[in-house]
């Protein structure tokens, strides 16, 4: 059982913590000593998992653009090589690329140093096997070894610099050339603005799109800078989306692409400067994934709109499986369905994590963007645009999210009690509870009662209960919230953030 100190490094299937001084009240936690112990634990765990001694293991290591990345990468490579492991130092890399080293370079494992969209002073570690990203239980096992100070016997390993991102970019270019069927410069005449947010995604403009003939003028923040001086690299951040939308309109581009820091997520912008994000991005990805997979199942997280379900099932002829929040949850559900013989080609969160079956169910923002660009090229030949593909998507007029902090120490048990009580409360008031919810309590309301729905759920990792509300009528969200208010007021350990 992990003690509280080591437990706090775990964030779902990742390790995350403060990695630099500079923010008052948040001292550096991911110190050299802590990194050494975690990587020592990882080396023990990987040796056991692979059934090989360390001297027969190959592990790749990469990082995003964070300022603490070089320090942590040096520590990771030093510890791994000190126990006999062959280490491939990939330098600045995307998270999906690090998984792909297990495919292309036959690595037994991979380590990515990233904290995704979190603030500049935080960082973390993600671990991969050839089967995919590790599970939460694996992270716990690694931290248990770190807590116990376990580390393989010292031996002489090697560290090799490997510019794998060059090979990764070439793979994406080949995919565009092959599937576009439009010559060796298939993107000629296509104007794409890329916003990398000063993360690791700048390569996509210069190494993938531009060599294939795309006009990438107007692209912004391609240079890696871990202080993130322009905006948070996060497709869900309103300022970030407003920035890339403005950049697209400023140069009259055909399409905009925005990545998060480590490029496992992406968002889009149409030629009109309107964002293709959240439900619109899910709809676009579903339309692409269901081509050749007629009647297939699209697995999403729990907060997707009612209109999206109608679009997937009625317009696209697919099946919508509304599952749980958490990208690993949707991916694992899609894997489970496929193992049972269900045709499920796509797992996607509204946050922009999208994993396609034809790409190892790897959540990869660059791969998703590549499939979207291929579709844009195909549609141009027909005189159509990406917007035409999702024109039939019914979209809500309003939406909001309210977050409640749980003050009860055992927050998971308390949150589950709240949800059971809400289920009973809804039944008592004759509310329409969704019969396909796999997370939290989702209730729909008719036109005269708010014309929309709410979902109250328990956060995957934190003492928080998010409440998502959507309505197809102006003012409907407020009507729905007012009906829920008497119930919320009785939950004494909930505090609105």
How is the topology of this model organized?
Layout: H1 4-7, E1 10-11, E2 14-18, H2 32-50, E3 58-63, H3 69-82, E4 86-92, H4 95-104, E5 109-113, E6 122-129, E7 132-133, H5 136-147, E8 158-161, H6 164-180, E9 192-195, H7 203-209, H8 238-251, E10 255-259, E11 266-269, E12 275-276, H9 279-289, E13 297-300, H10 306-315, E14 319-322, H11 327-339, E15 346-348, E16 354-356, E17 362-363, H12 365-381, H13 386-389, E18 398-406, H14 411-428, E19 432-433, E20 441-445, E21 452-456, E22 464-471, H15 476-489, E23 494-496
Parallel strand pairs: 3-4, 3-5, 4-8, 9-10, 13-14, 13-15
Antiparallel strand pairs: 1-2, 2-6, 5-6, 6-7, 10-11, 11-12, 15-16, 16-17, 18-22, 18-23, 19-20, 20-21, 21-22
Helix pairs in contact: 2-3, 2-5, 6-7, 6-12
